[in-house]
Specification:
By secondary structure, the protein is an alpha+beta fold. The protein has one domain. The protein is about 20% helix and about 30% strand. It contains four helices and eleven strands, in the order ααβββββββββαββα. The chain has a four-stranded antiparallel beta sheet with strand order 3-2-7-8, with no helix packed on it. Strands 4-1-11 form a three-stranded mixed beta sheet, with no helix packed on it. A two-stranded antiparallel ribbon has the order 5-6. This is PEGA domain-containing protein. It comes from Niastella vici. InterPro entries: PEGA. Keywords: Signal.
Length: about 170
């Protein structure tokens, strides 16, 4: 019975110690998001389009670096405020240098199982997002003349967006 316990302990120790990036690094990273002007809305969505965070600037959020087995995370951070042009910032995890430590220290279990499963094989390098929003251009009323104007979606006031119709 004692030898089974020792064997299980050794197998557990090998499994835990054979994942270099998981031990030395982490799988969630703090990202500070700020804007000028302050108090802008922040919406973060992942690569699948799932909203993972909403809040106001300034804020700090912890984001996962992995999105599944052998899949790095990527996010879109949208910063918006009424009267200002919205900005969208992409954020993508890249390979963590500690992951390659498995070749020397961790071994096959860390290289092929533990680090890919925990997401520690990836790292979010960008720790700060700080955007300056520009004031949206106001539109003057058209005086008794009909004109066709083409606007960029980011130039349209928020109050108009609910009345937009998609053209297919």
């Amino acid at each position: 019975m004692l030898s089974l316990t020792k064997t299980m302990a050794i197998v557990g120790l090998i499994t835990i110690s054979s994942s270099c990036a998981t031990i030395v690094s982490k799988s969630k990273y703090p990202v500070t998001i700020d804007s000028t002007p302050k108090g802008a809305d922040v919406t973060i969505t992942n690569a699948k389009g799932v909203q993972v965070f909403t809040g106001k600037t300034p804020t700090e959020v912890k984001l996962k670096s992995g999105a599944g087995f052998f899949k790095n995370a990527s996010y879109e951070i949208k910063i918006s405020k009424d009267g200002f042009t919205s900005k969208t910032v992409p954020l993508k995890a890249t390979i963590n240098g500690w992951y390659f430590g498995n070749l020397v220290f961790g071994g096959v279990i860390g290289l092929l199982i533990v680090d890919p499963a925990t997401g520690a094989m990836y790292k979010l390098k960008q720790k700060e997002v700080n955007e300056t929003l520009t004031e949206a251009k106001t539109t003057a009323a058209v005086e008794q003349t009909h004109q066709l104007r083409i606007y960029d979606i980011n130039e349209i006031p928020e109050s108009w967006k609910s009345r937009l119709v998609a053209i297919k």
